[in-house]
Amino acid sequence: MRSLSLLLVLSPLTLALNVPRQASGFFNPAQGGGSMLTDTGNGLGEPLNVIISGLSSSQVLSVSGVTNYAKAIGFSTECLGIHLGDPQSANLGDGNGAKNQSIELREDFGDPNLGTCLESLNGGNHFRVFIQNGAQHDTGALFLAASQEQNAANNHNIVANGYDIGRDNLVSMAVGTKSFGGVTYQTTSQTVSGLLPVGSAGINHGIAIDGIVNVLTVTVQ
Ligand SMILES: *[C@@H]1O[C@H](CO)[C@@H](O)[C@H](O)[C@H]1NC(C)=O
To answer: Which key words are in the record (predicted)?
Structure first.
């Protein structure tokens, strides 16, 4: 009897520990009918391989907020506002259904004004941003599809292993203390597996991925 009541007391706690939605600051899109792959329009997708947690400072979790953050870590808006390529959409399982990317940011090579023109020309890292803010799972988290591109002469195809490389480059640029526009950010990263598949099935260009997602928590100082 005693052990039964103990079990009854403990089981909700155990459940809570196994469902770390609040603790992780995002909702797994697959649990809401969505996907951790974008829709590129050809039946394949790019992996959403970086998440900026909803537990980050709220000032980061918007288009203007993530744009300033991107400038702090070495990315900027597209060259002269010219967008190359079609937008992609994603269903983050939050009740919004499929929605186009909110913004795309490119590595700026130290020049937030014109540097992304170099990225467009020479290739480099870039990421698309999708916001998980639908009424059903309004976590505020930002889901990023990061990849390393070839140069314009190669039509901006993704380099071999370019999704994992793009993720790792973005994370190494982001982690630590970075500033832009009078705002200082402190970023920590955790790796999560099990959200993305491993391998190349369903992945754009048939590029294999290792299935790892980095979850960043960004705190404004
Ligand atoms: C995304 O944008 C394209 C081009 O502007 C548009 O044709 C398409 O309908 C949009 N998709 C979604 C899901 O909103």
So the answer is: Signal
